[in-house]
Write a structure and sequence with these properties.
It is built from 19 helices and 18 strands. The protein has 460 residues and is of the alpha/beta class. The two termini are 36 Å apart. About 1% of the residues have low confidence.
Length: 460
């Protein structure tokens, strides 16, 4: 039944509106703008048509079958809308309204009634208090979307505005090739276990990121997560890890935050990649979705400044990454682009070669040779936001090299002018992970290497 949320044949928008400022208008427009080719039914008792589509007073009045219904109406009307869906035979509902268990009192009772109807009529429900789904196939979010990519990364969030805002950021800026973003809100029915299992078996999904404030069923979560994490990375951020965070979670989604020690044990047992904040979720998903999984943690550092190489070496060591010596064959390849009194080493210092050959020709040797080295599993490339870097963007030098050697590379920027740094972030960042912080980049790479080593160990 989970397919009905992502691949419905027909959808009804309960609360569809002709007013472009209303969420019901934006949701309907998003569905029209997506690749959805099924029947769309606006539900509005006060309108004959909405956005050129015939409108109906109730789901019950729709002449055809309805696979999925999206509610964007006040909470007090949702119970009657659920009853109508039950009579119509709708089997999937997304409730994007607020005012349920997260506010307590009457809202808790309304949510209880919805759950009761859902169980009686065999309806699966996402939400309430969520922002629905963002995907190329169908988008039900109340943020406007166009041109959602058909990528390989999925984000699951126990949030509404954040999930909508993050997905809007990623789509508009083209900073992550998402496949789907799912906001589950109060998760009165469909929860992280259902979605993790679904996307674990989805061939289009290669990376899963999750933000949760509670775990619905830990006994079910661990075996599902363990099975999924064995074949694809699962990045996990838990909100409500402290007493202050737990109180905030209660008022945000009505969640009783799970015991931190139990959650951490479950994460470790399942082999999940534990994030600390929302930047981790986005950054790590970028690394895992664009870079090959390495077998080890041996890293080459490629930089134009020796001092940077020293600091990056320290940070790599702090995060469990090794910096081996380059093989004799690699040293021999690098000799021609190093001064006679400066033998090639790891970190690889580029400046002499840049002055002599320019950055494009330099990288074709100084990045390519370490990546070809059998003792190197990955590389950290330091770029500056300067004019001499721009030909590398124009010729897609880094993309060509990384595609040839199939080893992970992360790019970090330290200095430069905004006009050039912004170009690096925007143009190179569409294809490869680019960081403005060395620590953030190295941390992300360390997570990738650790996952690769664990998966390699399990496979052996």
């Amino acid at each position: 039944m989970m397919d009905l949320f992502f691949k419905p044949r027909s959808v009804a928008v309960v609360g569809a509106s002709s007013n472009p400022k209303k969420d019901g208008n934006i949701i309907l427009q998003n569905i029209i703008n997506s690749d959805f080719s099924g029947d769309i039914y606006p539900i509005n008792p006060g309108a004959d048509e909405v956005l050129g589509l015939k409108a109906y007073p109730s789901v019950k009045d729709v002449p055809g079958d309805v696979d999925l219904a999206v509610f964007i109406i006040p909470a007090k009307f949702c119970v009657d809308a659920m009853k109508a869906c039950g009579e119509k035979g709708v089997k999937a509902v997304i409730i994007e309204a607020m005012g349920f268990a997260e506010v307590g009192g009457e809202g808790t009772e309304l949510q209880r009634q919805i759950v009761e109807i859902a169980k009686e009529k065999n309806i699966r429900v996402i939400g309430p208090n969520c922002s629905g789904i963002v995907s190329r196939d169908i988008t039900t979010s109340f943020f406007p979307f166009k041109d959602v990519p058909r990528g390989n990364a999925v984000l699951i969030g126990q949030s509404g505005l954040l999930a909508a805002g993050m997905s809007s950021d990623l789509v508009v800026n083209k900073s992550l090739a998402i496949n789907k973003v799912c906001s589950i809100g109060n998760k009165c029915d469909v929860n992280e276990n259902d979605l993790l299992e679904y996307f674990g078996d989805d061939p289009q999904t290669e990376v899963i990121s999750m933000y949760l404030e509670s775990i619905a069923d830990g006994a079910r979560f661990v075996p599902i997560a363990k099975r999924v994490a064995a074949k694809k990375p699962v990045i996990f951020l838990k909100g409500g890890r402290t007493e202050a965070g737990a109180r905030a979670a209660q008022s945000h989604t009505g969640s009783m935050a799970s015991d931190t020690k139990i959650v951490e044990a479950a994460i470790k047992q399942a082999g999940l990649i534990q994030a600390e904040d929302f930047t981790d979720i986005k950054d790590w998903a970028k690394v895992f979705s664009t870079q090959p999984i390495p077998k080890g943690n041996r890293v080459a550092i490629v930089t134009a400044a020796g001092s940077v190489g020293v600091v990056v070496s320290d940070i790599c060591a702090e995060h469990g990454l090794e910096m081996p010596k380059l093989t004799d064959m690699t040293v021999e390849r690098l000799k021609d682009v190093f001064p006679p009194n400066m033998p090639p080493a790891n970190p690889v210092d580029l400046w002499y070669s840049i002055e002599k050959l320019g950055l494009v020709k330099t990288l074709e040797t100084t990045l390519a040779a370490p990546l070809e080295d059998p003792d190197i599993d990955a590389a950290v490339l330091i770029l500056a936001g300067m004019s001499y870097t721009m030909p590398v963007l124009d010729e897609k030098t880094v993309q060509k090299i990384t595609a040839k050697y199939q080893k992970p590379v992360i790019i970090c920027m330290l200095v430069g002018y905004n006009e050039y740094k912004n170009r690096i972030m925007e143009e190179l960042g569409r294809d490869l992970p680019v960081f403005t912080s060395i620590r953030s980049g190295v941390l992300a790479l360390s997570k990738l290497c650790k996952y690769g080593m664990q998966r390699n160990k399990n496979a052996g």
